[in-house]
Design goal:
There is one protein chain. By secondary structure, this protein is an alpha/beta fold. It has one domain (2-218, 247-302, 362-398): NAD(P)-binding Rossmann-like Domain (Rossmann fold, 3-Layer(aba) Sandwich). Helices cover 30% and strands 14% of the residues. The chain has helices at 28-39, 68-78, 89-95, 118-139, 177-192, 223-231, 251-265, 310-315, 327-337, 349-356, 365-369; strands at 2-3, 19-23, 44-49, 79-83, 101-104, 143-147, 205-211, 213-215, 237-239, 248-250, 293-297, 323-325, 394-396, 407-409. The strands form 4 sheets. A 7-stranded parallel β-sheet has the order 4-3-2-5-6-7-11, with helices on both faces. Strand 3, helix 2 and strand 4 (79-83) form a beta-alpha-beta unit. The longest helix has 22 residues, at 118-139. The N and C termini lie close together (11 Å).
């Protein structure tokens, strides 16, 4: 791991002295958002989750400028936990009382057996989002930032050098049911910024953050499974073309985007979104605006999905696989695994397609320097949005021979 000159610490002046709720606040991303909110002056962070709360264990990766001991003390005194099932309208309402803004991070059914429970996926991701928006409007919450997914615009067809003007994927073309529900929920969130039917003096301010694949220290969903495959000797081949590229985002880069977005939404001089949204077949895209908008977020380093794990393989003492299987072979194998549909998902179609087909949103070096995916103060065409200041703090550094470095801190 190597370092370069430190960039100025991020500034979120509108977060200081505010109170926040985080749905999914005990999950990986939600927990990190809570830590960074505390480090930047939040007076209250309420974590809403069906999971039991995790204590904060101080580490070298605690957000600056606070030290680990100070942050640990703030975590004990300025955070609350409430068990909250998003399907329960009253529980959501209780969880949002008295807060200035909501980070709506919770979701259900992204992977594993949960993907098969489509009724639950719809109830949590769509109905739960409606409950969050209804409660926010009823209680006078100022802003809601929704954690979406890049898959709202990805149907399995290659995407190269695209931006937020990409249309939403039609309902019947999503790669999985989870992505379909996230797409519906995102549109509800963005439309809420244009809803003038409520009696509140000022419309709810909203935006959506669309992360790429998330990685980072103590990530619990994907990396442990990859490591388990390596230890069992099952990470022995790659799939598809080595030229296919996808994107990832380091967790604190993603958290930075969330905090930057809410900081802008809480600004006193934030412009309102156009009263008429984009057509129902396309994503809203209004240059210069944050309210009612969606932003793709990644590290701006398109990379082959399997090459991404090369440093991890080498670092653990394994060899990178030389065998490459054709996509069509794995496609039919995944199809057979999904029959019967009650079988546990392993190499299922919905997980295979995003890993193999190219989908990234810029190949512009100039744009990546200022983080073009979020369209934050960029010089690239069609990329001058209102969120200014996002720049990846951690970037991948692919290893030279006999080197095991995974990331570079900037």
């Amino acid at each position: 791991m190597s370092t370069t000159a430190a960039a100025p610490p991020p500034s979120y002046p509108n977060l200081h002295g505010r109170s926040f709720a985080i749905t999914g606040g005990c999950g990986y991303v939600g927990h990190r958002i809570a830590l960074h909110l505390l480090a930047h002056g939040a007076t209250l962070v309420r974590r809403l989750d069906v999971m039991a709360p995790r204590p904060h264990a101080p580490s070298a990766f605690d957000p600056k400028p606070l030290g680990s001991e100070t942050l640990n003390a703030l975590f004990e005194t300025r955070t609350e936990y409430e068990r909250c099932d998003l399907r329960d309208r009253e529980a959501v309402r209780r969880g949002l009382r008295g807060v200035d803004a909501v980070f709506h991070v919770a979701s259900f059914g992204m992977s594993g057996r949960d993907m098969l429970n489509t009724a639950m996926v719809m109830a949590v991701n769509v109905d739960g989002t409606r409950h969050v928006l209804d409660a926010a409007n009823e209680l006078g919450v100022q802003a809601v930032c929704y954690t979406s997914t890049t898959n709202v615009c990805f149907s399995g067809r290659p995407l190269v050098n695209q931006d937020e003007r990409l249309p939403y994927v039609p309902d019947h073309q999503h790669v999985d049911y989870y992505s379909r529900t996230k797409c519906i929920a995102e549109q509800l969130v963005l439309q809420a910024a244009r809803d003038t039917s409520h009696t509140r003096a000022q419309a709810l301010r909203t935006c959506a953050i669309r992360p790429a694949g998330i990685y980072g220290e103590a990530e619990e969903r994907h990396l442990p499974r990859i490591v388990a495959l390596m230890r069992r000797g099952l990470f022995c081949f790659t799939i598809g073309s080595p030229d296919s590229l996808v994107e990832f985002v380091y967790v604190d880069n993603l958290v930075h985007a969330h905090l930057l977005a809410v900081d802008k939404l809480l600004s006193s001089d934030l412009p309102s979104p156009p009263s008429t949204p984009s057509s129902s077949s396309s994503s809203p895209w209004s240059p210069g605006l944050v309210n009612g908008e969606a932003f793709f977020i990644s590290d701006c380093q398109p990379i082959n999905n399997f090459e991404f794990f090369r440093p991890l393989l080498l670092g653990l003492g394994y060899s990178y696989p030389r065998l490459r299987l054709p996509f069509l072979f794995m496609y039919y194998l995944a199809f057979m695994i999904e029959v019967p549909p009650s079988a546990p998902p392993a190499a299922t179609l919905s997980r295979l397609i995003p890993c193999i087909h190219t989908h990234y949103l810029s190949d512009s070096l100039v744009a990546c320097t200022s983080h073009r995916i979020a369209n934050l103060q960029l010089s690239a065409p069609h990329s001058s949005r209102g969120l200014q200041g996002t720049r990846p703090a951690v970037r991948l550094e692919m290893p030279e021979p006999h080197s095991h470095s995974l990331v570079r801190l900037e």
